[in-house]
Amino acid sequence: MALLTITTPRGTLVQRKTSGGVVKAQLTWSPSFGAERTKQLRTVQAFVDSEVIRLMAPYTPMQSGLLIKAATLGTVIGSGKIEQIAPYAAWQYYRTDITRKYDPRRGAKWFERMKLDHKAYILKGAAQKARARYG
Hints:
The chain is of the alpha+beta class.
């Protein structure tokens, strides 16, 4: 005899009373929960990846714009890994000046500097995406 049954998208909770008067609860997860949660998390990761690439652009050294485009072309949005495919990207990132004469924001370690300025915004946006998807 079931005393209580609660069904949610994440699973079902069933309470039963045994012959000895003890109440037992059983939690059964929905078989689709893992796939649904993975899809939701990918949406949040896609937001983070896109915002990181967008917000890094003003910090990235620029002569022709190829280094900025290298992040977009080398990254699979939603993978959680930003890749800059320009052959000189690592040299520019680690071995050049932090600022440029033509624009003080542009220079080495552009991701780290962008993160210092925009980390709170990215985390807040990711949390909002997660709440919108998860409830």
